[in-house]
Amino acid sequence: MSEKTKPSLSKKLSSKEALELAKRPEVEEVLNTRRGWWIIFTTEFQDEVTLRYLRGEKPSIIFRSHNLGPEILGYKRIERCIYHWASHPCDGRASRLEEEHRCYAELRKHWKHIADKGNSDK
To answer: Does 89 have pLDDT greater than 90?
Structure first.
């Protein structure tokens, strides 16, 4: 009987894994520091993860949707990303998300107006 092995909480990346991650579109840069590999994700990826997390999705599901699940990154790294991105958003991310909310609200009003106008013409 073989048991499914669970990914460790804290995953140490090998050089090969780090180089593979560096090729990913979600990754801006991978740095080798004295404390291990440091992964810098793109702003777009950070924004998407933050928005989906704030909407209630689980972090591991969000990262897995990009094939970057805990099996690859480790639970601890994903947890730290979520903590930094969602709990302490940079001013730029916060303002981009607010602007996106405003745009969606305007679009909803616009489409509702068009739908109401179309219904009144019948």
So the answer is: no
